[in-house]
Hints:
Helix content is 13%, strand content 20%. The chain has one helix at 3-26; strands at residues 50-52, 82-90, 93-101, 105-107, 138-140, 169-174, 181-185.
Amino acid sequence: MTKQGYWIVFAGIFRLVMLVSALFWLSPAVAITYTSASTTYSWIDPSAHAKLGYNTAPYKFNGTTGCGTTPPTLDDTISDVIPIGFTFLFGTASYTTLQIQSNGRIQFGNSMCGFGTQNIGPPQTYPYPYADTNLNNTMKVFDVDLDPTTKSDIPSYPTSCNSYANCFVSYATIGTAPNRKFVITW
Length: 186
C-alpha cells in the first residue's frame, strides 16, 4: 500500500472515531436519580379499640394447650378466635377470623402459641423451638418476647404495667366496606 493509501485509511478511521465520539457526547445523559418527599399518613389511635387481656370481653387471651403460660399470666399465650369483620385473603386462603398471639403474631386457622423468640447465648434461654410448619398461615409482625400481663391481673407480677390503660394489646375493625382494616396494637 502506498503512503497515500495509508492516509486515506487513517482518515477514514479517524472520521469514524470522531463520528462515534460525537454521537456519544451528543446523546442525552442518563443517570439514576431520586427525590425525597414527605408522605402524609394518619396515626391510628388505639385508645378506643377493644383491649385484649385476661378478663376482657368479649374476647381474651385464653391459654390454649401448648402455650408458654396460663392466664392470668399472658406471656406467650394466644387469644380466643376473633372475627375480623370482613374476608381477608392471606396466601391462597380466605379467612374471616384470626387469633392474636401475645408475642406479636397474627394466626389464621391455627392455634399454635408455644413458639417464642430464641435467645442467643447465656444467661437467658427460652424453651421454645424455632417456628416450623405448625405456624403456617401466620404473620410474624413482631415475634419478640412481649408480655402484656398487668399488675391489675397479678399484683405481685414483676412488670411496670399497672393496668390496661397504659399497657395493652388492642384490636379493632375500622373503616367502611369495601375499605375496612383490622388493626392490632401490641
